[in-house]
Known about the structure:
The complex is a heterodimer of chains A (238) and B (66).
Chain A: H1 4-28, H2 32-64, H3 69-84, H4 93-101, H5 106-111, H6 116-131, H7 137-141, H8 150-160, H9 168-190, H10 195-220
Helix pairs in contact in A: 1-10, 2-3, 2-4, 2-6, 2-10, 3-9, 6-10
Chain B: H1 4-10, H2 21-28, H3 32-49, H4 52-58
Amino acid sequence: VLTASERLRQKVDLLVPAFVAPGRLLLEHPRARELYPQYLAASSYVALAMVPLMEAALERARALMTGDSVAAGLADYLERHIPEEIHGDQPGSATLEDLEAIGVDTVALCSGPLPPKIAALIGTQYFWIWNSHPVAILGLLELEALHPHAAAVEQLIERTGLPREGFRQLLLHADVDVAHAEELHAVLDSLPLEPHQEELIALSALQTMAFFIDAWLDVVADGAEAGTAHASRHRAHR
Amino acid sequence: LASNFDKLHDAGFVLTTSVPQAHKDVLDGLSDDEVAVILEVQDRLTQADQDEGLSAQTGFTTFFTF
C-alpha cells in the first residue's frame, strides 16, 4: 500500500517532464544571459510569498488544532519549517539580493502589478488556507522535492557568465531542499489525512507546477514581455 | 463517459495506448480538477511547441510522460 507522500509523488511525477523542460531550454538558449534575470524574477514571486503563506497556514492550523489532528501536526511542522525558509534578515530578502546582483529592478518587481496567474496562485493558496484547510500549503511546499540540481546551476552560471551572486538561492536550495523534501514527505505520511485533504494537497501541488511551467515558458519562448517584463528592466550589466 | 486516460490521450498528453495498467490506474485515480490542470499544462506545451522561433532555437518537442 502506498503512503500519502508516494501517492502525491505519483501525481506530481506526471508533470515533472514539463516542469524541468523550461530550465533545460534556458540552459540551451543562445540568449540565456539575457533571459536568466527574467526567469529568476518569474520564480521570485512565490519565493517572496512563501513565508507569509506558511505563516497564514500556521495561524489557521493553530485555530483548528483542537480536535483536528491534521491541523495540529501541520502546526508543529510549520513552526519548525518557517524559520528554515526565511533566508536573510527578512523573509525573501535573500531572493531580492540575488535578483539585484544580476540587475533586476527589485523595487519595480515588488511594487508593480503581479502577473495575473501568479496572483491567482497566491490568492488560491490563501483561499484554501482560510476556507478549506491549511494543509493545502503542503502541495505548494512539494516544490522542495523539485529543487534545482547544483550541477545544472553551475552550468547555468558558466553559460550566462552572470555573477555567481545571482545564483546563491538556487545553489542553497539545491543543497538544503533534499532534506526539506524528506521531512515534508515524512510529515505527509504522519498526518491522518482524509482522502479529500490528499486531493487538496495534490491539486495545490499540480497548480503550483502549472504556474511555474507557464511563467518559465513565457520567458524561454521569448514571449518574455508577458508577465515579468515590468520587473525585469535590467540595468546594463554586461 | 471518457476515462481520464482517454481524455489525456485525446489531448496528446499520452501518446500511446499501450500504457501499463499501473499507469492507467494512476491517471484514472486523478480528480476532474487534477485532470484539468494537466490538460492546461498540455495546452501550454503545445502552444510553446508551435512557436516557430522556440522550435528552431532549442529543438523543443512536446513532452509526454509514458
